[in-house]
UniProtKB/TrEMBL annotation:
InterPro entries: AAA+_ATPase, ABC_ATPase_HisP-typ, ABC_transporter-like_ATP-bd, ABC_transporter-like_CS, MetN_ABC_transporter-like, P-loop_NTPase. SMART domains: AAA. Its main location: membrane. Belongs to the ABC transporter superfamily. Residues 13-247 form the ABC transporter domain. Keywords: Amino-acid transport, ATP-binding, Cell membrane, Membrane, Nucleotide-binding, Transport. PANTHER family: AMINO ACID IMPORT ATP-BINDING PROTEIN, GLUTAMATE_ASPARTATE IMPORT ATP-BINDING PROTEIN GLTL. It is a peripheral membrane protein. GO terms for molecular function: ABC-type amino acid transporter activity; ATP binding; ATP hydrolysis activity. Pfam families: ABC_tran. GO terms for cellular component: plasma membrane. It is found in: Cell membrane. This is Amino acid ABC transporter ATP-binding protein.
Length: 253
């Protein structure tokens, strides 16, 4: 969330005055955002509002033109920063599952833990099996991705992202590529992560999920955070005309 609360520890994520343009077109125009530890913040907005670009700047897939981004107090937009080191602290899941087709489920899930974080194979696999059991996929651990449904692949991708115990988890439209019948099982896993204390920034068009599971909702419109608040207030009494129009279009659809 964004605000002026005084805390003894820095937020997990602090975004200050971030701008990003592509070919002279502004996509982010002064984004300010704080996310505290164990918070789930949901960013909503129409296509082209800047949601995915914001996540890409946080994970350093795109460099900001101006502004700063802090991860637990560290300025990760400093040009001298070690990009790989920063990314090892952040888990990312996109709408495309991005599983390695030539690796089994267990190898997909444990690869980053073993290769990036140096976790022993036995330890990584034991933790992976616990999570796969928790989401009902333990029987699939030796299967390859093409044997899994879209919902199963996406849950495996999320488990892969969280197995390295990231300080921040970024989820970008993780249900958009799924059959509607499979959306619920993926969002149930995100609810489990919230219960387990994960810190999450996610973009989604699933308003019922945002209303029930988010701690804070932000509405991006033309590259700015136009409105934000706790879910009850945000959805119950939005103040900006653009927010009301966006929500009404979703309900109409």
């Amino acid at each position: 969330m964004s605000g002026d609360e005084t805390t003894t520890t820095p937020p997990v994520l602090r975004v200050r005055g971030v701008h990003k343009s592509f070919d002279g077109t502004a996509v982010l125009s002064g984004i300010d955002l704080d996310i505290a530890s164990h918070q789930v913040v949901v960013a909503i907005g129409a296509s082209g509002s800047g949601k995915s670009t914001l996540l890409k700047t946080i994970n350093l897939l795109e460099r900001v033109d101006d502004g700063q981004i802090f991860l637990k107090g560290d300025d990760i937009t400093d040009p001298r920063v070690n990009v790989d080191s920063v990314r090892s602290r952040i888990g990312v899941v996109f709408q495309q599952f991005n599983l390695f087709p030539h690796l089994s489920v267990i190898d997909n899930v444990t690869l980053a833990s073993r290769k990036v974080h140096g976790v022993a194979r036995d330890e990584a696999e034991a933790e992976a099996e616990r999570w796969l059991d928790r989401i009902g996929l333990r029987a699939k651990l030796k299967d390859y991705p093409d044997r899994l449904s879209g919902g199963q692949q996406q849950r495996v991708a999320i488990v892969r992202a969280i197995l390295s115990k990231p300080e921040l988890l970024l989820l970008d439209e993780i249900t958009s590529a799924l059959d509607p019948l499979l959306v619920g099982e993926v969002l149930d896993l995100v609810r489990d992560l919230k219960t387990a204390g994960a810190t999450i920034l996610m973009t989604t068009h699933e308003m019922s999920f945002a209303r029930s599971a988010a701690d804070h909702v932000v509405f991006l419109h033309q590259g700015v955070i136009l409105e934000q608040g706790a879910p009850d207030a945000f959805f119950g009494a939005p103040t900006a005309p653009e927010t009301r129009e966006y929500l009404s279009r979703l309900h109409a659809g």
